[in-house]
């Protein structure tokens, strides 16, 4: 019973523990009640319908719960699903920590934390260094546990840190190749650029947009945090240092139509935007190709204009 | 010598006082130095070239200075200009206040200030009222004297207040017609929406973008001011009241491609955006048609997709 | 049995009279015949499927008929529906007027008619006044009973008049605030702008596009009507008065891509276009928020770029 | 002195009669008056400046006049121009008919008139035939003498007829190849589609937009004419015949953003639109390549997205 | 049993031979296996589901097979379908050639071949003639049997030749009307422009994109073929003849966003592009209107911006 | 006389050798002949006008010639220019090699050649390695001396190699960070992607588009070269290796509207496209900021949507 959901073959009998990620009560066309459940463990998601659901099932089989799932693996419209034969909440002695059933970044939190600290050391400008340190002392935990998005790229626990640190790595390498780039401004921007997501999103499980997330958005939210930090540290908001740090973060979506209120007007802002797109793109392609057989095309990738990508034959 | 620049006819001899708005030293194709000057008084602008400029003229005839201008009115490429015969700084006993030579809003500062106070009284929600009052106690003077833009609409002294108060009037009328609109939220948004311009722009004379204006923009700047005010007043940034006040202001450009980081997601935010466009549009058309003869078309209006507008024959 | 369809709770037994708005005969995947019916009363619409439909049901349960509907209220894919237990045509003594089951404008026809007459009195220009009066003497009834659209905004009986009169009210208020606007041209435009809909659409019940509606469109159709009226009144089509009246109406969609053959080139044409958008937008948001709980977001609104709008908590 | 303007070589002395097409009085930068004149004969246009213009020259050298022009051919910014040595109005015994100096369609009016009549005979549907005949009995002369546009394609005398008849020819050929096309509807559409230009434009010399042209546009204007003709002929505007005839004409710009209030929804409407583009495109390319040397690229063609076209080496 | 699939009425019993075009094994929501089959003969396609499919049915009822199909004709979501009662592979003595069950171009292969040869004779330029002949000697068979597309226009056996020859016919006629067009270049372009489809697509049955089709596309593929042919014939790739032949083919999609790497820069390239659109458009409209009743609108046509087209009443 | 053109101050007397890059003979408005010359040395360009040019100057002062230039440095419309006092061809004993007066890549040809060889060694796939080696044995010299563009980025001698090798460096670093990328495919793509420019452009001096460049474009031209190389090496064009190598090169502009006939459909193709944009962007910004004072904004950069970039104060 230690098999992961993704490891079962078609038509194989499933008997595993799983986290309920979403659960929606629906009617069939002919009026019968069922629950459409998204089961999940660290190998990914598997949907299934519980037919003729009873009232106490409707009440207890809710998002965040861990269950023992039994059934048969099949597929519906080319997507895997489970034909449920039985599902119940776990009991004493069985697994009970949601965190064990979530997809995690491929690097441990502690390692990411060390990386973060190493990058902060590269920021020698005292204004930038203190703003960055103040914000990470405040939001360190959330930074390490939050996803980078609800859908699209890096939508797993730790995704925010994993994505931000990947960009910081790119920033470090590229500013070595191009000496004209201000390395520490790039790194500060890489670490801060998506930090507003810890206010925009509800958390790593059943991720939703908060009200502030919907109505203000993570770009204005991280700017708010930088402004408040600078205010508390008594830094002058009209100084060039503060203005360009905020600019690099505000402009990171690159285009106004992607939600940045200003377009990049510093070389570092333009480069940070491009590195953000590069890392997000690679993560989306990698994640899609991981589920694709060699010599075939992936599913359409929403965040890349619905393109399908081909997996080279000998590249397994 | 009391005639205004716009009152002279073609080929008439000019002898008036004027403010130098811009002055650029250039070479002719054959290498001679001249100064391209934009003269201005409260009737508008008039360009002219000072040929064979001498060094002390280059040093003294600079933006912000008041001069006595003599010459002949002509036109170049369909635009009025002056053929300068003489130009010198004003002397003791002659006019010396730049403010007397600027285009002003058609309403007095003191009246606009009263209107502002009356509108603030309509905001009975204590959170919104205190934020608005705090910001206007801080920026009242600049609000009453700044233009609303460098070019385009309301680009005159007092334009910021004149534009904001016009929208507030529209907001008041329209929320009377549509009872479903929250009048005080609309009015608070109308008053605050462009307040970031007092940081974005350099002031009413020879208006330029500040560094913060170019790299952060007036939308994020007014949000910064609201955040700092709320912080000082100990209001909760996560409360619905604060979130929707910020939203209404952040979303007022309506579309991401116009620089709002979020699109309107409140009925009041959508309406404020539309009233902003309506007032700006009417001001641009009015200003263009003021210079147009009945029965003919105006110049192209940049802010309205370069359309020309027709002035109805009997509408003078 | 006086309860309206929208007043039933989930799982409650329904027993009400209703109008059949649409009825489509379909096969299940396994080949059985059923009728997919849209029931309707003045509280809104409710879909339901009549399984194993018999031939005489297929013949009699058609759009425009009034039925007694019995069943249970449920939902399918988050949309309310009814599980039909019985449905039959009404009999003698039961309701038989489709008009009683339609959604109506929130103002009575007679009141709207008075408002219309009041607005016509404000049009003192004799050419415009006579054209407007001629057309409303011809189309008064249809104007008061037609919807303003098949979908989107004001798609209820009387919607055309309700929408046109709202804009006329806005026009009157706004031309009071901005004296440079020609009030009577704006009002004439407001009343006429959508009048072509009485030819474009089939009527208030089961609204469809007519052939002329599909191939010519309401903008060219209202222009046709103005041209014919002017012709009969012996007005000169080359006079400025006639040209600008037609222009204001032809340009009211604002952009070529929205179907206006010319863009607004009169201040009044631009303002009329913006007021049209403002009123349509407010109506769509109001209608969506009426079905939304406080503190949550509405469904996506098609006519507003599929945005969802938030309903403020204390705004019930 | 029989040489045409286009036949002179660079640096050759010019002595020819020419029509003044446009004449604008301007100031040099140093304030001297000159007239910028566009001379023209049936070989094309040639601009030149008359320096130090005297008052009586300003009064007499105006558009529509025929002059004797003397000077030297040169070029300014890669465009041919004339260095004027002398210019005066023609005297008794010298040419005096502007029509002799205009660019004309490459086919005679009388031939085009015959072609027109032949095409009308192909329209056997009595409704369409009578509408077409009524309109051409009314506008025959203007149709044969007007240009098809102010700029862009077919902007010469007779261009409207030349363009419309070319499309009718294409329509005839193509409906022979594709039997599913209604030939007479296509031909009626080809003849009528641009007829509104006789109201939209001021005429073949110094062509301007009329007020109706600017505010209503040739598409709604031709629809107006068809409606009035049908009205006078007592045809039913709601008949399919009338609706589809109007549709074919209204939709001929193909896209809403090009000014058609409806997109083509008949096979014949779509085909007419494409033939219109085809003929206009070929005319623009031909006209540009006529001025281009073999083996080089033409100037940019505004109406074809500013593309330059290459002239094949052996294709003279 | 000689009836074609399209000839059966609703509810009529079907007993016909058919080709299996696609066959997908799926699960019902409740987990039962069925095969979703697309049956086809030269009258068109008909989908149906084989419920409770057995293993040997799953193995044998695959694309390309001919079967005897029994069932009842019905419809599902407005699309015709068959309720299968029995389906089995054909036996000895019954039809066995897939080609007999495919939709074919309305002209015979042999006739199209003759037309092709006639057109090649019109290409007298020896370079173009030899390149065209070389490629058609190589790809003649595929050219005559391939469809012109997977979906959209001319997606039937022989569609590639039928479409290319229609354009060649248009090219011949139009270059007769406009003498300035190089007829043989146009014809060579018409014949070659889509020839890359024989590499891009898998063939006339169950048409798929090949790997080269997906990753290189038919435009670069036909260019590759022309380059290789010219190389083998020892023609100079830098000669104007070769450059313009390749250009006409490379640019035939007209716009970069439609996949041409260069926009048309020869009059013939622009015209070829427009003729391609014209023929494809007419074919799509014809095909949609063939399935439409007079006086009603067709289904939306994907390749024409999802427009619906109206079928004129008397046009059957 | 060893000073470079860019080293002179305003108003300083110039006496230097320079290359004539472009020379156009023009007329003044008053009809006098002058030559508009672009002088150039390895510090950049400097325009100047030679007034009252004589015939033998017009004949000898042509692009590619080296001259001794004397005059005074000034500026015209904010751009530096020279007021020429004397200019003559260089004589025996004075400089005569155009190459000494061109802007060169900041790395020597020999070093770039070594780098190129090192990168080729990293391509171990024998198909890709042999195609790359074949093409570089053929075009090595041109690759090292050509610019990467006529305008925009890397428009200097050696720019093609400098740009391609920068991308190869990025490719190497980034495929170290992301192990899922195929490093050798990325490097092969980086080296080949712009190689078609050696056919598209005329060379490093007075760079123009060739006929093949204008009508076919560098993307189809490099594909042509790969196809011919593969053909000669007897590689199968249908093999996955050849298809994906061509794809990576064909797709490198990323979007169809930028001239790629296919969009990236391999992870490596997408990444190569992004690295191309990154390097081009950094080069354009660096080049603009090199001419910008700290604390001010650069000129608009055409290739970056006409944005201006700010130069940080302490970043000299």
From TrEMBL, chains A, B, C, D, E, F:
NCBIfam families: HDIG (TIGR00277). The keyword Cell inner membrane does not apply. This is HD domain-containing protein. InterPro entries: HD/PDEase_dom, HD_domain, HDIG_dom, YhaM_exoribonuc/phosphodiest. CDD domains: HDc (cd00077), YhaM_OBF_like (cd04492). Residues 160-281 form the HD domain. It comes from Leuconostoc litchii. Keywords: Exonuclease, Hydrolase, Nuclease. Coiled coil: none annotated. The keyword Nuclease applies. SMART domains: HDc. GO terms for biological process: rRNA 3'-end processing.
């Amino acid at each position: 019973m230690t098999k992961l959901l993704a490891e079962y073959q078609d038509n194989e009998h499933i008997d595993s523990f799983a986290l309920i990620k979403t659960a929606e009560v629906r009617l069939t066309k002919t009026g019968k009640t069922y629950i459409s459940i998204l089961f999940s463990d660290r190998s990914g998601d598997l949907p299934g319908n519980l037919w003729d659901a009873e009232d106490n099932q409707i009440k207890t089989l809710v998002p965040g719960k861990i269950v023992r799932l039994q059934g048969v693996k099949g597929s519906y419209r080319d997507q895997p699903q489970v034909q449920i034969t039985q599902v119940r909440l776990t009991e004493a002695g069985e697994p009970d920590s949601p965190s064990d059933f979530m997809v995690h970044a491929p690097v441990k939190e502690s390692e990411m934390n060390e990386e973060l600290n190493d990058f902060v050391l590269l920021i020698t400008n005292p204004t930038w260094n203190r703003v960055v340190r103040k914000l990470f002392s405040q939001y360190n935990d959330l930074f390490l546990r939050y996803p980078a998005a609800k859908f699209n790229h890096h939508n797993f626990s730790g995704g925010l840190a994993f994505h931000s640190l990947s960009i910081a790595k790119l920033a470090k390498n590229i500013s070595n190749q191009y000496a004209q780039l201000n390395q520490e401004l790039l790194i500060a921007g890489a670490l801060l650029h998506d930090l507003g997501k810890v206010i925009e999103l509800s958390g790593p499980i059943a991720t939703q947009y908060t009200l502030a997330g919907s109505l203000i958005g993570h770009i204005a939210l991280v700017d708010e945090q930088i402004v408040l930090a600078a205010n508390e540290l008594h830094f002058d908001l009209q100084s060039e240092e503060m203005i360009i740090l905020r600019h690099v973060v505000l402009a990171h979506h690159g285009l106004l139509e992607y939600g940045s209120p200003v377009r990049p007007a510093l070389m570092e802002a333009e480069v940070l935007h491009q590195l953000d797109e590069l890392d997000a793109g690679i993560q989306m392609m990698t994640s899609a190709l991981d589920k694709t057989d060699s010599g075939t095309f992936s599913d359409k990738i929403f965040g890349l204009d619905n393109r399908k990508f081909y997996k080279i034959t000998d590249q397994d």
